[in-house]
Amino acid sequence: MIIRAATAADAEALCEIANWVIRDTLITFASAQKTVAQLRAEIAEKGDDYLVAELDGQVVGHAYYGAFRSGSGYRYTAEHTIHLSPAAHGRGIGRALLQALEQRAVTAGLHVLVAGISSANPGAVGFHAALGFTEVGRLPEVGFKNCQWLDTVLMQKILQQAGKPDPDSTEKPG
């Protein structure tokens, strides 16, 4: 298995994974499928912080992070996304992706990573807990997909306990 930064050439494989998650699961509340062009734009925007897992020459998963909320007070906190192809589950690929993403986040100066997890995906709650994330809240019935109301489970991990950043800084970390 190889964990590496995504490239535009990965967009088609990533589109297949993303659209499987959107179309066939309750992992995300999104209903509009993605296009290859959208994925290429996301890869370009996130740069080296958009990671893919490759197994036997095939892209089988991806992970990235982005802003948790707008406003400069949240600049040291990010929300991450991680998705695997069906064949990649249970093989340690998700763990490797998330650990690599956490290293990138620390290097970028982030303090906290947040996971917003569908209540229809209890395996993801256990996965995150095993990697040091703590459940910090539950938002009842905030998602609606496939004719059912779904909760969002919020989990977080404090990445670094270093001193406080400069309170006058408006710069993004990293």
From TrEMBL:
InterPro entries: Acyl_CoA_acyltransferase, GNAT_dom. SUPFAM superfamilies: Acyl-CoA N-acyltransferases (Nat). It holds the Pfam family Acetyltransf_1. GO terms for molecular function: acyltransferase activity, transferring groups other than amino-acyl groups. Residues 1-160 form the N-acetyltransferase domain. Signal peptide: none annotated. Keywords: Acyltransferase, Transferase. This is N-acetyltransferase family protein. It comes from Parasedimentitalea marina.
